[in-house]
Amino acid sequence: MGLEVSLWRAVAVFRFAALAYAVVLLATGRGEYLRPWLGLGVVVVMLIWSVVAAVAYAEPARRRWPLLSADMLVTLGCLFASSWVVDPARLSQGAATLPMAWVAGAVLAWAIAGGRRWGLFAALLVGAVDLTLRGRVTPTTLNGTVLLLLAGFSIGYLVRLAGEAELRLQHAAELEAATRERERLARGIHDSVLQVLALVQRRGAEIGGEAAELGRLAGEQEEVLRSLVGNAPHAPTSDSGVDLKALLSTQTSNRVTVSGPATPVWLPEQIADEIAAATASALDNVQRHGGPGARAWVLLEEEDSEVIVTVRDDGAGIAPGRLAEAAAAGRLGVAQSIEGRVRDLGGATVITSAPGEGTEVEMRVPR
């Protein structure tokens, strides 16, 4: 986990910072210590172990009981050595131990490795040894133990929350990738297989006889496919330059007029392909639902920050609520093949229509 790695590094830095503070105390108060030379030896042990711990904990495979136990033993040993360096009478009155805050490094390590329970246990263990040294409960012992308990609990709880958050994020990323791929397949099916099946169903019903039965079967399979493809997003990616104006011009026919700027409109290939596919779906809807003789006009506009493709027709129009009903029934021609494509390019689609007044589909896509 990214946060856990950062926490281990922070513990390593904390050990060296606390060690530096212990060295300063030893140097400035050496006259008050019973055995300054022994205190210097303890500080050397703390320095060596700080280096060893920083290197050992950097490898995830080593963050197990042997290393954690050794860390705690070295920490308690250095703490217990205070009884031979600091005057016991001064310790009983609340004087600082030789390692001072350095002992918190082991508590933090246990909390990161095992969570809040391990952190609390390590804090109580260190607090018990500190109490043994002093012989009685002092404000210093009480405050130090409470701070260790809070640190162990907080860090352990933070690590658990971070682990759960990373698992959720990983699951969400996997789910998003799966649904994007499903959407890509769904759109491909809609633009090819579903339209062919719909055509077979319609033509079979017109011809009659055995063709009608074939059309009925095609209609059943169309419904099955529509229920399978469902809803899913899609995200295109490509950096190749393609002239969107040239792509849209291929849609020109005796019933479709395409207009655009005098110069090419360059876009990454996959984005241009998606816009062209959404435009083709809008024109297909005009042909299928606009009524006999319906004409369409495609207008491509280029602005500094976006491109705009507008598809207008003079067909039968769309009744209020019809698009929502079609999406609920699994007919994804508008919801996914048009709106979905544009939405996943970071754009927006505005559909304006009324019965008998034609339809206007405006697609805005950021450059």
Please summarize the sheet with the most strands.
Answer: 5 strands, mixed
Low-confidence stretches: 231-239
Shape: elongated
Output the strand order for the largest sheet: 2-4-5-7-6
For the secondary structure, the number of strands is 7
- Gyration radius, rounded: 36 Å
Domain DUF5931: 1-167
InterPro entries: DUF5931 (IPR045975), HATPase_C_sf (IPR036890), HATPase_dom (IPR003594), Sensor_HK_TwoCompSys (IPR050482)
Transmembrane segments: 12-31, 37-58, 65-85, 118-135, 141-159
GO molecular function, one term: kinase activity
Features:
367 residues; alpha+beta; Heat Shock Protein 90; 2 domains; five-stranded mixed beta sheet; two-stranded antiparallel sheet; 11% strand; elongated
